[in-house]
Design a protein that fits this description.
The chain is α/β, with parallel strands linked by helices. It is 38% helix and 25% strand. It has 16 helices and 19 strands. It has a 6-stranded antiparallel beta barrel. It has a 5-stranded parallel sheet with strand order 2-1-3-4-5. It has a 4-stranded parallel sheet with strand order 7-6-9-10. Helix 8 links the parallel strand 6 and strand 7. Helix 7 packs antiparallel against helix 14. The radius of gyration is 25 Å and the shape is elongated. The two termini are 27 Å apart.
């Protein structure tokens, strides 16, 4: 993800996706055509190098020539715990060489058919040279066998230096990394449901059932005891850090900023102590007691966490914190968002939120504004105000269906210029290329809750790949 160079933001280093790679061809060819296997091995080495350029940790089990070698490779890949298994069809090979690998690997399977160049030199090619271009030949056989064995798969065909093919391969690699982040993730849920928000209510078992991962149930007292241990020196350091990152509006009260800084340091410790990859929270509180003050002091720290790659969402919105995690790992940031207004004069949908924001996708240096009151919430303090970077964006949310299944909802648009509110909210104008009222009706008809992630870039192609790997429905809202 591109972080504005003027913002000194720290990023959590996400675990790299582990890709298992096996290349193969029919061993009967090797004695017949002595130059063929060395050429195919060179192609396999090139594929391995390109995979690493995509940011993958490659578990390369080498070249297989028959079913026995395929079975041995299957055991190596199973033991490696891969996030994606790539079978490189260098030439013709039998389905029995790859089916065991797909069955035992416990990972999604991608078949790639990348011939050496765009086209053969047909006037001079001999049989051995032709066989190096024959990776397409076994692909229908593999597809038939995989389907009959009940093994999902996907494929990419092209040539070794075909950037269109590598763009598609990269999409599967990124999707596998996001799937792994969800399956291994530890997601904090702190406080209680915002009263009356039936759309936000989430059965915690369904998170594990649909995505895997673990939900750590937290109380605001878990935060309170950590905030109480924050030193004045740590508060000063965090306040100075905030002054580096944010423009401080004249409405910011020094005591409120110091409290937000104290809560921010405590939040960092909470995240570290529980090993959290995301956090959703809400607490109402009463009459200015400490829990109310904690709930009102979250925005600075939650925004800094989100910018680091640990998304934090208010209003107990667990599914949106997961959507923000997906968006972040796809490279688009992902800021806590809801509908704010429709501008029929300009044809724009205005969206954003009061509360935590993804600072790394701000159009400019974000602003901290002091608020005497949070609308609809108890407490007071400082809030983040910014506009998402102008250009292509994707609205992305996770919906829970009546039968408990999760689904993805996404729509691509563009953040454009126009007047914005100055009330301590993130606010962006999004042009979806249609009447804003019609878009809002179509978006709402998907069953999405009233929060989602707004991320930079057009991400639906990546989300299609992720939906395929996770076997969930993707609903695309288009003009």
């Amino acid at each position: 993800m591109t972080v504005p160079t003027e913002l000194p933001l720290d990023r959590v280093t996400a675990p790299r996706v582990r890709v298992g790679l096996v290349a193969g061809g029919l061993g009967a060819y090797w004695p017949q055509f002595p130059d063929l296997l060395p050429q195919l091995r060179r192609s396999a080495d090139r594929v391995s190098a390109r995979m690493r350029e995509l940011g993958a940790d490659v578990v390369d089990v080498g070249f297989i020539s028959d079913a026995r070698e395929g079975a041995a490779a299957a055991e190596k890949l199973r033991a490696a715990g891969c996030d994606l298994i790539v079978g490189f069809l260098t030439t013709y090979m039998t389905a029995t060489m790859l089916v065991p690998i797909a069955q035992r690997g416990d990972a999604p399977v991608l078949l790639i058919n990348l011939q050496p160049t765009e086209s053969m030199d047909h006037g001079s090619v001999d049989t051995g040279q032709w066989l190096a271009y024959c990776g397409a030949c076994p692909l229908p056989e593999m597809a038939n066998a995989f389907q009959r064995c009940g093994v999902p798969f996907r494929s990419v065909s092209g040539h070794l230096e075909d950037e269109r093919a590598w763009t598609r391969i990269g999409r599967w690699v990124r999707a596998a990394g996001v799937r792994a982040a969800l399956r291994r993730g530890r997601h904090g849920l702190m406080g209680h449901l915002y009263p009356g928000m039936l759309d936000v209510s989430t059965d915690l078992t369904l998170v594990s059932a649909n995505f895997g991962g673990h939900v750590e149930v937290l109380e605001f007292d878990d935060l309170r005891v950590r905030v109480e241990k924050v030193t004045d020196a740590e508060v000063r350091a965090r306040t100075d850090r905030a002054a580096e990152i944010f423009e401080l509006d004249g409405s910011v009260n020094g005591d409120d900023l110091a409290w937000a800084a104290r809560v921010s340091v405590g939040l960092d410790r909470l995240v570290e102590d529980f090993g959290l990859d995301s956090l959703a929270y809400y607490h109402r509180g009463l009459d200015g007691e400490v829990h109310e003050r904690l709930g009102a002091g979250m925005i600075l720290g939650a925004s800094l966490l989100t910018a680091r790659g640990i998304p934090a969402a208010g209003e107990y919105e667990l599914r949106t914190s997961l959507a923000m995690l997906v968006a972040d790992r796809l490279g688009g940031g992902g800021s806590f968002t809801e509908l704010q207004a429709l501008d029929f004069r300009r044809g724009h949908v205005e969206m954003g939120h009061d509360g935590p924001a993804h600072l790394a996708i701000s159009a400019r240096r974000p602003l901290l504004r002091g608020l005497g009151v949070y609308h609809g919430k108890r407490g007071y303090g400082v809030s983040v105000e910014f506009d998402v970077r102008h250009g292509p964006v994707t609205a992305f949310g996770i919906v829970q269906r009546r039968d408990g299944r999760y689904g993805f909802v996404a729509s691509e648009g563009d953040v454009v210029d126009g007047p914005l509110m100055r009330i301590g909210n993130t606010t962006s104008r999004v042009d979806f290329g249609c009447d804003p009222g019609e878009w809002t009706d179509a978006w709402s008809a998907t069953g999405i809750s009233h929060h989602w992630a707004l991320c930079t870039g057009h991400r639906i192609a990546d989300l299609r790949a992720l939906a395929d790997l996770m076997e969930v429905e993707l609903v695309e809202v288009t003009p």
